[in-house]
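Job type: complex structure
Entries:
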Amino acid sequence: MNQRKISESTVRRLSLYLRLLRESGPSGTRVLSSRELAERTGSTSAQVRKDLSFFGSFGKRGRGYDVDELERTLAGILGLQQRWRVALIGVGKIGSALLGYGDLARRGFDIVAAFDIDAAKVGRHASGVNVWPLDELENVVRSHNVTIGIIATPPEAAEKTARRLADTGVAAILNFAPVKLSTPETVTVRTMDVALELEGLSFALTSERGNGAS
Amino acid sequence: MNQRKISESTVRRLSLYLRLLRESGPSGTRVLSSRELAERTGSTSAQVRKDLSFFGSFGKRGRGYDVDELERTLAGILGLQQRWRVALIGVGKIGSALLGYGDLARRGFDIVAAFDIDAAKVGRHASGVNVWPLDELENVVRSHNVTIGIIATPPEAAEKTARRLADTGVAAILNFAPVKLSTPETVTVRTMDVALELEGLSFALTSERGNGAS
DNA sequence: GGCTGTGAAGACCTTCACAGCC
DNA sequence: GGCTGTGAAGGTCTTCACAGCC
């Protein structure tokens, strides 16, 4: 496991390859070439081979990659042979959507506890997950062995929540609040921001006019 | 507006700069240096200056950037001086969350119509947006002059929905379904996938063990 | 013949470092 | 003195192209 620095884009693509392999599951093809993998994930064949080559040689020359084997290998690389225990902070609109989103559990991420500052939201959520008062965060996160936190609080509360999660020993945070979190380097943070993505689209549409849009 | 190829990361950072400028609004500082902009968005001062230099010279040497002026300039570059008319397809968990998410309107994106295949969801949504039967998509998208579509359907329906949006003349799609969309090149697509981000975190946590994690 | 694995080349992005201006 | 704007250097990521194997 002595691996060099793997880029974020490579990891993203590995996830896409894995998703494809899982979909072409039992009834799918037994072997896929780098070209097929590329076409169906929006990459190139050389890119696929390069991505995989950082971790070893998993293909068979002249044939391609064995679907089952590559699936297991990729799951291993991505750390998805284990299940991850996740805490959700903030049971508002986004939080509730996440609680009801079965794809997360299907892909190895169990939301084992949720928190909200609003007493009315405390109790058992429709999804079956328990919603705790925010005060209980440290206790419950520790007792449930949570390693990943999801921040779905209002932006004003995000920074403080991040600090509390970090102090409680959570190793990674997925942040839905449109703010920059200042966490210790030991915590890996990734932010998802719908408005930011829309702004990216806005830019693309705006600058198209400049060039001769076909 | 004869601009060269601007990278996606540059555009993302421009959005972050703009967000910061807007937050440090009326009561904020009148001038910000590239160093300040960088520190508060998680970038570097050279990066900030380079990003801006693709579009012109907006700073004052020895002083920095005028907040109001740079805010206007960035909004112009990103195409945010106009408002964007957005259609949402799929009023499930994610779709509802988006309808209730005021930040989108605040940042220039108005969801002017929503669609769902389920007759029970048709009618006026709590957010005030009208939910139409899916059959009406082409009519309503055209009559409302929609330019951006958000796909929040189940994965199986995403591809077909994308094609319909593309055929109806929508210029950009924000896709929440975990599938690769095959749309004509005239349509800009961006996909947001929570599980994919979590898998990125999973990888980071897993590969840390390999190195000597401090 | 077909396809992988991979050095080398090329494209792209970031950082450096400093001239130029306030 | 302080800060911008920017060529040049350095680094990273992608694509090419082909040797090696099935």
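Summary: Chain A has two domains: 8-77, 84-195. Chain A touches chain B through 63 residues (CB under 8 Å).
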